[in-house]
Write a structure and sequence with these properties.
Length: 223
């Protein structure tokens, strides 16, 4: 592996491997082996792992090091239930600042989602779907709630990676363009109902079982 990779590149590669189950829930992430695989210092690897830990994708325990977070079935349900309760509530506030520029921006995001789905890049699709939701929440002007939803979206990404099917991030759960059209038409109540139904579909698409742990060859994985 070239040591010209930036921390951002390493972050994306590890995240992609987690989302695609090459690094399953519970897999250990030893700094020394990752450092060797990426040809970067352990300090750089540690920074990337700390970022993933902030996003609840990885857990870091004293004397144990880092490992891929292993969400429980209960955590999966609670995270999705929290989003189902909270995200529809912000729609009316989002509409107060909604503009043509916002509509254009989110339509570009949907185009990126569709491109990722077409080339079957599940990792990118999960990330883009989460980004759509937390960027929308930040338009509400309630930074405390939006930050909380952003963290829930990061946790949902891991949950979908661990328990999801291709239906969890496809149009089967509702096309984001439908929501944008509702916001363009200032249909607050219908948009709230759409958001609730969309998140409930994602929750119902999950297959709540834990993957078996496996031995990881980091050199081979990141070569």
């Amino acid at each position: 592996m070239s040591n010209n990779l930036s921390d951002e590149d390493i972050y994306k590669k590890i995240l992609k491997s987690i989302v695609e189950h090459q690094l399953p829930p519970g897999a250990r992430l030893p700094e020394d082996k990752l450092s060797e695989a990426f040809g970067r210092s352990r300090t750089s690897i540690r920074k990337v792992l700390q970022r993933l830990a902030l996003e609840r994708i990885v857990t870091i325990a004293p004397n144990k090091g880092a490992q891929v977070n292993q969400p429980s079935e209960q955590e999966a349900r609670e995270v999705l239930d929290s989003r189902i309760m909270l995200e529809p509530l912000l729609i009316s506030e989002v509409l107060k600042s909604w503009s043509k520029a916002n509509s254009k921006h989110f339509r570009h995001m949907v185009a990126a989602e569709r491109k990722a789905e077409k080339i079957e890049d599940q990792a990118a699709l999960i990330q883009l779907t989460a980004q759509f939701h937390y960027e929308l929440a930040h338009l509400s002007g309630n930074s405390v709630m939006a930050d909380f939803i952003e963290q829930l979206c990061y946790r949902s990404s891991l949950i979908i990676a661990a328990f999801g099917t291709r239906h969890s991030v496809s149009c089967d759960c509702g096309d984001h363009l439908e929501l944008i059209d509702l916001l363009d038409n200032n249909e607050s109540e219908v948009a709230q109902q759409w958001m609730k139904r969309h998140l409930m579909h994602i929750k119902s698409s999950l297959k709540l079982n834990i993957s078996d742990d496996q031995k990881i060859n980091f050199q081979q994985l990141f070569s």
